[in-house]
Write a structure and sequence with these properties.
The complex is a heterodimer of chains A (136) and B (274). In chain A, strand 1 and strand 2 form a beta hairpin. In chain A, the strands form three sheets. A three-stranded antiparallel beta sheet of chain A has the order 1-2-3, with no helix packed on it. Chain A has a two-stranded antiparallel sheet with strand order 4-5. In chain A, strands 6-7 form a two-stranded parallel sheet. Chain A folds into two domains: 47 residues, N-terminal domain of TfIIb (Single Sheet), CATH 2.20.25.90; 63 residues, no CATH class. By secondary structure, chain A is of the alpha+beta class. Chain B has 274 residues and is an alpha/beta fold. In chain B, strand 1 and strand 2 form a beta hairpin. In chain B, strands 1, 2, 3, 4, 5 and 6 form a six-stranded mixed beta sheet that branches. The chains are: A alpha+beta (136), B alpha/beta (274). Chains A and B meet through strand 1, strand 2, strand 3 and helix 1 of A and strand 1, strand 2, helix 2 and helix 7 of B.
Chain lengths: 136, 274
């Protein structure tokens, strides 16, 4: 059976919120189409949106966290990576104070993820040093 | 359900048992429609069948057929989409014998939205709706009537709005080259807006659309800058018709001018320079 469908989603590249369709043929992501009739993007996309499918299965995409060991990046598990980040951030906060840490979030994240990072910065680290690439 | 939608539903139901899928438009969860291949195994999905907006179905058909060369497929097509499919077949992009066309005749309102000169199908095996005549294209007529100087100024100003999204090329049913000239840094410099020579991209594309553009206007519809580029293609199409008696996408047995070998006498007959 041949399967061809489109999955509507929001473009991950900036904060505008253009809608796009991800084209799926036989279970594989093959391309992007603009979403006609969407109130924000109205059937248009910029060059980034038109290529929003390209990074998903790109060979250069990171699939596991990497930790630098002796100058080289080595593949690690999420547990190892998160433990290391927690330890280092904790140590910096204790030694130099919470305002020595700054957090930059991304338009590629969802609103919910950005909310969580905001909470993490203010409630966990204890700093107001949080900003977002959409303000650049 | 409107009457036209019901008729389309019925037409698809009749064709479905004979094919592996019918390419049409399906309403999504948020009411936004997109191309979808309806399968004979899941006819209940036709409850989500949509009729508007127009979607780039010919190009989608090409992509599916490329992966399933021998599959028998049907496609819902309007006049322009049928022309797109005919033209793709002539350029060896589609297998005509494996495609069943379900014609969808455009309404007056739809034709006026598209400024369409031929909003009806010719080759479709079954058709839905009543065929109507073409409507005038006031925008093209207005631009065609401008002086050369005004035309140049008009297009220059329009092209300067271009944000280099490549949407017009991506959505075009006739842009199927494996390597696209327009990606060359020579024509479209990266990292700058507006482009240093904004006319280059659009004029090269216009030349490449000669005897290929089927006037579906997908490029204009998707353009974030609202450049009325189909007007250029329409004017070129008028010239092509005058010189070669060629109407893009109309007949299966007429070779596109690009594929013709012209003898010396024919050059003279068509009035082309030697």
């Amino acid at each position: 059976m041949i399967e061809y469908k489109n999955i509507q989603t929001t473009c991950p590249y900036c904060g505008t919120g253009c809608a796009l369709h991800l084209q799926v043929l036989d279970g594989a992501l093959i391309g992007t189409l603009p979403a006609k009739g969407h109130p924000i993007s109205q059937g248009s996309l910029c060059i980034k949106g038109w290529n929003a499918h390209a990074f998903v299965n790109h060979k250069d995409r990171l699939r596991t966290p990497l930790i630098r060991k002796d100058g080289d990046f080595v593949e690690a598990t999420w547990d190892e990576a998160l433990t290391l980040v927690a330890e280092k951030l904790g140590a910096i906060k204790t030694e130099s104070g919470p305002d020595s840490v700054g957090i930059l979030t991304s338009a590629k994240c969802t609103n919910e993820e950005n909310y969580l990072l905001n909470k993490f910065a203010r409630a966990v680290i204890g700093t107001n040093n949080i900003d977002h690439c959409a303000r650049l | 359900m409107t009457d036209r939608l019901t008729s389309l539903h019925e037409a698809i139901m009749q064709v479905l048992p004979q094919v592996e899928g019918v390419l049409a438009i399906k309403r999504g969860p948020g009411g936004i429609a997109a191309p979808y291949l309806f399968s004979p195994e899941h006819t209940e999905e036709l409850d989500m069948l949509a009729i508007w907006p127009k979607e780039p179905l010919p190009d989608t058909l090409r992509i599916i057929q490329k992966a399933h060369t021998d599959a028998k497929l049907a496609v819902v097509c309007r006049g322009c989409e049928e022309r797109g499919i005919v033209e793709m077949f002539k350029h060896s992009q589609l297998k005509w014998d494996n495609i069943t066309l379900i014609g969808l005749e455009c309404t007056q309102e739809e034709a006026e939205f598209c400024r369409c000169f031929k909003p009806h199908t010719v080759h479709a095996q079954t058709t839905v709706g009543d065929p109507i005549q073409g409507v005038p294209d006031p925008l093209t007529d207005k631009i065609a009537a401008m002086s050369l100087e005004d035309k140049r100024a008009f297009w220059k100003a329009e092209f300067e709005h271009c944000i280099k999204c490549y949407g017009c090329r991506n959505i075009c049913p006739q842009c199927f080259c494996n390597v696209c000239t327009l990606e060359d840094e020579k024509w479209v410099e990266t990292g700058r807006l507006p482009m240093p020579n904004p006319s280059m991209y659009h004029l090269i594309r216009a030349m490449h659309m000669t005897a290929k553009c089927v006037a579906c206007r997908e490029c204009e519809e998707t353009c974030p800058a609202g450049i009325p580029m189909a007007v250029q293609f329409r004017l070129i199409a008028r010239d092509v018709h005058e010189m070669f008696s060629y109407e893009t996408g109309a007949r299966l047995d007429q070779k596109p001018p690009q594929l013709l070998v012209l003898e010396e006498g024919e050059y003279q007959r068509t009035g082309l320079p030697h």
